[in-house]
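Aim 2 progress update. The chain analyzed this quarter is reproduced below.
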Amino acid sequence: MTDRWARAEERFRQREAERRYRRNDQAWEDYDDDTTVIPRYTDEDHDEALAAERSRRPAPQRAERGEPRRGRPQRAEGAPPRRSRGDGLGGGRSGAAPARSGRGRSERGGSRTEEGAESRSERQRSGPSRGRRSRVASRKAAERKKRRRNLWLIGALFGVLFAGAAVFAGLKVVKMFGAPEDFAGPVGPLVVVQVHPGDTSNQIAEEMQKKGIVASSEAFFQAAVRNSNMNSVQPGYYAIPSHSPSTQAVTALLAKSSRVGNLVVSEGRQLHDQQDVNTGSRKDGIYRKIADASCVGTGTNQKCISYDQLDAAGAGADLTALGVPNWAEQRVRDVPDRSRQLEGLIAAGTWDFDPSGTPEQILKQLVSASARSYESTGLVQSGAETKLNPYQALIAASLVEREALPQDMGKVARVIVNRLAANQPLQFDSTVNYALDRTEVATTDADRAKRTPWNTYAMPGLPATPISAPSLNALRAVENPEAGTWLYFVTVDKQGTTLFTESYSEHLRNIEKARQSGILDSGR
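Predicted structure tokens:
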């Protein structure tokens, strides 16, 4: 009985636990989607071992003598005492012992039969849930296997990366402590390389390697840092032999003869060559200057862009290819002489261009750089007071450049603005000379009477194009002319003394002073 009560108590506790933590097994069985939510896991082996242990557990000890047995009637008063199990063994009546022993075996046999039935019943009830627990366990095992595989893959990837980094670092160390690659000679043909403003020795070295001049930037850099004259290298273009040893490449870069594409345009210079009437000497134009600066090499290996090639390229119809700025494009299209359409668009100053380019590319590089220089003065935004658009201001600046010394530029600019406002011809000798092959300060009556798109004696207003390359000072003078009411001026001596007036009669007297000094004498 005690054993049955113990089993009943055990079943009661199990039902309480199942009731308290009950799951909807049917809903779980129908849910067939793969999910990362893992249900509560029950170890089946542990449950079976626990059930087997309970079946082997011995029955509880019976009650002590003198205590009434549970479920048995009390001995009636006066009845003979019953023999104990010990009395049967001691030689008393032996019939009682076998009977009691048989009854005990019967009870134990019945208990085992009942317990076996209960165990089979429990297994039958837990059959579906045990299958579900088996699937969950398999799924967890598969996930653990997948995680292990992913860890192996990640570890292998990190191993490859580490090995690659180690190899790269090793190569760097070997390269650092080993001698850098260098050419041994002989040298090859000349290559043009550019040094940009602000370039360091390391940046120059990289450009040298890219152009094929040196074998490695490290070799050039090591040779450069050992030469203190590297600090004197100026921005620009240099012609250096290819496949040069690094020390020779540094020496060639420092040589003045290696500098190419360096152009100096003086103030008031025109595009084309002119001849002085008095001396007969040729005054080189900007195209001639560009041609001379474009030469690379010496002797029979020298290559240059010719004057005629530049003149032809400058007359091209594709103004965008020539770098003409937007604010000048329409007026340039209307120029009556196409060979003069770029006049004034290459500014006075020092310029660098790539001599290995085509004539069109060289002109575009120079015109674009000049436009940026002009615009830096505020040219595009000016004109509110003078009523001149940017291209007209450039034309007026070219007149100021040819007519005035620096100290008189503001006054000459004011004379131009005042005469244009009064619709009065400018009557500048420089505009007469512009269309002539042979020029001088003085002009003849026939020259002044000849009607051209530039002769301001023969027409009011500004010339068709600028007549020279103006300086930035001349351009600033036009943008902000000096205040005054002057309408006339004349240079009265060869030192450049210029007299200004608003009276025509006084202007005639000043012209007479100029004649007396001989500055107006013509050589023709």
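The beta strands are 190-195, 236-241, 259-260, 262-265, 274-276, 282-283, 349-352, 438-439, 488-491, 498-501. The chain is about 50% helix and 5% strand. These observations will guide the mutagenesis experiments scheduled for the next reporting period.
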